[in-house]
Write a structure and sequence with these properties.
27% helix, binds pyridoxal-5'-phosphate, TIM Barrel, alpha/beta, 11 helices, 8-stranded parallel beta barrel, Lyase, Ornithine Decarboxylase, Chain A, domain 1, 2 domains
Amino acid sequence: MTTSTWFDTSIENALLAHLSPEDEQAYFVYNLDALKAHLAKLQQQDVIKLWFAVKANPLSKIIQTLDSEGFNFDVASTGELNQVLAQGIDSSRVLNTGPAKTKKQLAAFVKKGVNTFVVESLNQLNWLNEVVLEQQTVSGNLNAPQVLLRVQLQWDEGEKNPLGGNSLTPFGLSVAEWQSVHVDDYPALNLCGLHIFQWGNMLSNEKMFSLWSQMVAPLTELANSIGMSLEVLDLGGGLGIDYLGEGNTLAWSKIIEDLAVIKAEAGVKELWLELGRFAVAECGYYVVPVVDRKVNYGQEQLVLAAGINHIIRPAITDQPFPVRILRPDFDEQNTLMENFDLHGPLCTSMDKLGHLPLPSDVEVGEQLVFGYTGAYGFTESMPFFLCHELAAEYVFQAGKLIEVRAAKPASSYLA
Ligand SMILES: Cc1ncc(COP(=O)(O)O)c(C=O)c1O
């Protein structure tokens, strides 16, 4: 991958200006101006209603930027809901997904004014109905929440299987399970849509369209059979980022074109996506110092100040984030590069951020920058193991690097 596809001079200059030889701490940076411009492009269409999957990056400044570009918010926990509300966002712009909703949580969300739910089990459906009826008894008028049923499809063995495997997950229910309900049995709810999302980091427009196309028939049949007038189809997230630099990227204009077809075929009034990585991954950078360099059994190894305690994604997906050295006047084309194993400080071989090219003369004390870390970075990691520091988070806006959250020592979380 050429660094130019994920790095730019303005952020490089800001990080270089921030460089200090004494700095032994790793940190995240999010380029808010670039994020805003990217989000504005995503909104230049009238086919899809866009939500932001807060799990990808719940930092206040990130949520505020998405808010400023008209995104609504998909939250999967009380913590995410509170963080969204704390940014002054109205609860009517919040959607609640996730397989672990309790009746108590549903009641608290309804009380806070959340009015859109993706339900993932028969219990969730019944509890939500009960909660609304109970709150109507107490407070009178309450709008029936919009409810989408989350569907999990499988294809019979031997048949063409667009999902590439029939692994069972707790996300939603099969068509057969949902067929046991009827919309008329839930008068307190506005059961108006279906949700499906069973793919990840999709990088081909053709594959994505083929998958979406094959879902329309089973979904519309399910809606008919349970008496649902299908008004909303939510196709989740899963639009991919080219972490490996293989040159496969999704064209947003083609997605809009394809989804206009899906929307018409499904006959829905609204088509929704909850974007995570596709919205925020490319605005983020992770900067980490090199603390040791050695050759081990002939392999060049770098040990970094932090690893999967700050960014775990490479270990759980086997896909490294792209890396570059932070060095004044670095010229990638005219530098001798070689592949290094990049390890973090934890006592597990899982703590590896990749086997990636860096200048062969990289030294202890220099800093590395990883790209595409705006999504599934800081909050997806395992920060407490071995009592290292929590990473700081900065934003880059109007040419300035601003600290939003300082690094925290282990004493801040140890009891
Ligand atoms: C329900 C739901 N919607 C959207 C997303 C966002 O996915 P992505 O980051 O791939 O866009 C997720 C991620 O796990 C999810 O669980």
